[in-house]
Amino acid sequence: DGTQTIVDEIALGVFFMEMVVRVASEGDQPWRYLVDSGLARCFDAALIVGSGVRLAMAHAARLGDSGVQVLHDLAILRALWLLRIFFMVKAVPRLQLICHGTWASVRAAHLIGVVLFVSIFMAGVVARDLF
Fold first, then answer.
1. Dist. CA 89–CA 100, nearest whole Å
2. Cα(111)–Cα(45) distance, rounded to whole angstroms?
3. Tens of pLDDT along 64-100?
């Protein structure tokens, strides 16, 4: 648990510093960081702020502060970081091609499964009627 907490703090620090540098690079219009870039940066900013709140609440819980019930609800933010992959797929055309090919093959495998299910079901109905 200690190593995971340290890795979480380092990763959050790196992402927070990236966000601060990007906001600072907008100059006298820092809101452009969220407005001009679409949903991806809004999502990242919400995750970074939420993870920071979760981390602060975890430190408060270790110090003995009671009433930290939101901590467990904010733990889901760690899983939401994985959704950033979908934004990356959108940004890289070659990765997008690979994902589309994989999805097409999954759909084809699904159809094969449906045909297999129907044929086994029909064989069962015929076997029940014959025997």
1. 10
2. 40
3. 655 555 555 566 666 676 777 777 777 788 888 888 8
For the four alpha carbons of 24, 28, 31 and 36, in that order, the dihedral sign comes to negative
Cα–Cα dist 19/51, whole Å: 13
Which residues are within 8 A (CB) of 28 and not within 5 positions of it... i.e. 6 or more apart? Answer: none
Cβ neighbour number for residue 57 with a 10 Å cutoff? 18
Q: If you search the block for the tokens 């901590």, which residue do you land on? A: 71
Q: Residue type at 24?
A: A
Reported as a single tens digit per residue, the pLDDT across 12-38 is: 888 888 888 888 888 888 888 888 777
